[in-house]
Design brief:
Rossmann fold, alpha/beta, 2 domains, 12 strands, 19% strand
């Protein structure tokens, strides 16, 4: 026999269902809460208005978006621009570490070294780190072993390759000045590699250690007083800030010095030739490591990635101004010719 209740009352089964549903409301509401806003600190060793630097940062942000991270939505990016100053970099490092982001993203050895000294806890993803094992940033490429990993830049042996390419495009060169920051260990390693390769190429190599623009101008002006000179520009904030890039290229033109650069932008503008890896692809790809760390991966378990492709850019207009005839075979092997 059915049991009927007066109007306004619920059946027992309906009441239990309702109570059960109420009990799940807090859990459902909790599940629908937006994810915690994650935070990234970015240490950029160039000025905020540096055109090439902004291109690379754009590639990094594109990489983050492809991984599902958007600044201001589920991610907060704290950009710090340090220019080419070691003192500014140290200041920025202190600020970033004090802010305690989930991950710090940094470019070049001069940024990574002070970060390594400042924290062993905050995960760090790097790009453009030359010889990260020899520089002491990681224990090995396959097993970084600490709170730091990323994408390596040039290995020391590239110094010999730069010398070889310079000799090919400017066969009359007999003396080569290597512009470097003597305080950057890997810059000295590039020099050593060039010195080892010099004998077989019948060249002499001179260290052009510099710390600022005045040093660069003084050294190159003195070097150009003798004939048959050429220049290798090594990568560091000393040579990669916009003002230093322009200074070196203008001096090379004025002093009639064939020069090879580690940055694509130099050859695209007015430098003679560049031999480098695709930096923008590396910055974009590094976002995948930032993503994995934000999702729980440990830097010690992410192997350091090496460049997969190098590109040679030749500025034919600059070659003509220097009185050089670029060999046909070299033009055919170039990735890009600027005319």
């Amino acid at each position: 026999m059915a049991f009927h209740q007066p109007g306004g009352y619920m059946r027992r089964r309906e009441f239990i269902a309702l109570v059960g549903g109420v009990a799940t409301w807090p859990l459902a509401a909790h599940a629908q809460q937006p994810a915690r806003l994650r935070r990234i600190g970015v240490l950029a060793p160039f000025d905020n208005d540096d055109r090439e630097g902004q291109r690379l940062l754009g590639a990094f942000k594109e990489g983050l978006v492809s991984q599902g991270w958007t600044d201001g939505r589920n991610l907060l990016i704290d950009y710090r621009f340090a220019g080419g100053s070691a003192e500014n970099i140290r200041t920025v490092v202190r600020e970033l570490v004090a802010a305690a982001p989930d991950v710090i993203f940094a470019a070049s050895n001069v940024s990574i070294a002070p970060l390594q000294q400042a924290t062993t806890i905050i995960p760090i993803v790097f790009v453009q780190a030359s010889d990260p094992v020899g520089s002491g940033f990681v224990a090995s490429l396959a097993h970084p072993g600490g709170n730091i990993t990323g994408f390596q830049g040039y290995e020391p042996a590239i110094g010999g390759k730069w010398l070889e390419v310079l000799k090919e495009i400017a066969p009359n060169v007999r003396r080569v000045a290597v512009i470097l920051n003597p305080n950057v260990t890997v810059n000295v390693a590039f020099l050593n590699a060039a010195e080892k390769a010099a004998a077989s190429l019948e060249l002499t190599v001179t260290a052009a250690g510099a710390r600022d623009a005045a040093d660069i101008e003084r050294i190159l002006t003195a070097f150009a007083r003798e004939p048959n000179g050429g220049v290798i520009v090594t990568p560091s904030p000393l040579t990669n800030t916009a003002d230093k890039r322009e200074l070196i290229m203008s001096l090379a033109a004025k002093l009639n010095l064939p020069a090879i650069y580690p940055y694509r932008l130099s050859a695209v503008s007015s430098g003679l030739i560049s031999y480098s890896y695709d930096a923008a692809a590396q910055w974009q790809g590094s976002a995948s490591y930032v993503d994995r760390i934000l999702r729980g991966a440990k830097p010690s378990e992410l192997p350091v990635q090496a460049p997969t492709k190098y590109e040679m850019i030749i500025n034919l207009k600059t070659a003509k101004a220097l009185g050089l005839t670029v060999p046909r075979a070299m033009q055919l092997s170039a990735d890009e010719l600027i005319e």
